[in-house]
Amino acid sequence: MVRNPCYDKYGRKKGAWSPEEDEKLRAYIQRYGHWNWRELPRFAGLSRCGKSCRLRWLNYLRPNVKRGNYSKAEEETIKKLHEELGNKWSAIAKKLPGRTDNEIKNYWHTHLKKRERQNPAKSQVVQQPPGTSKREGDDQKRELESENIHADAPSHYILESFSMSPESESSSSEISTLSFDYTPAVNEMNWFADEGIASSETFAEPNENFWTEPFLTDDSYAQYCYPPINASLYDSYCGNDTDLFPDIWSIS
DNA sequence: AAACTTATCAACCGCGAGAAG
DNA sequence: TCTTCTCGCGGTTGATAAGTT
Fold first, then answer.
1. Which of A60, A61, A31 is nearest to A44 (CA)?
2. Is the minimum distance from the CB of A240 to strand C below 7 Å?
3. Which PROSITE patterns does the entry link to (predicted)?
């Protein structure tokens, strides 16, 4: 279901994420936040483009991301908001805590859109029509199961007011919005360590210039850089405007 | 059992908005 | 203003699981 790993012309990995990459990214962001997506993979030791890291974090690694099993309430919310907002997936996702725009978009295209077409007059969840594939039937079964699980699930307005406990909040997407407007002191970073990040030791503590140095300019930062390269050559890391990378990456 | 078809969803791509210089 | 850069969004792709013939 995932794309095979491959490498772009700059040597950056594309396709499916390995558990090791996931762990590196998760540990890095939970420890330091995502201060700059473009630069992040370099510091996190990932040969990925920032965009890919961002997507992976938001859609998969971020705490409190719910997966699968949409409740009826969530489904109704999606349908209703889609009627109101159209394909504003990110806006819809904001109303569904734990769901990502990508996931909602996928869900819409694979489940709801089809049903809307089959029964445009009715925005209710409809019974499985005869002749529908077995797989669809399984989906409905899963949906019904999830419906039971979430029998008391609130409407989207209630979902909207969903608030996380202080504990979950501290380990949730709030972290994902941490920017370097907020410059944590080293002891404050232990806050992340409290999350029980197994590989938090992967990253050495930065020196005091770490957060204000936009680019690697000397070897003292090499520990954050994988593969170790001259940062000045890294400038267009995630852009489409450099031919330097084949050589750079081939060094490692 | 094999070949073919369909559904799913993670991930990629391109573009636009907004911020900063 | 204009340019550059980063981020986020929405559309699309493609590998693979699941179903059908």
1. A31
2. no
3. HTH_MYB, MYB_LIKE
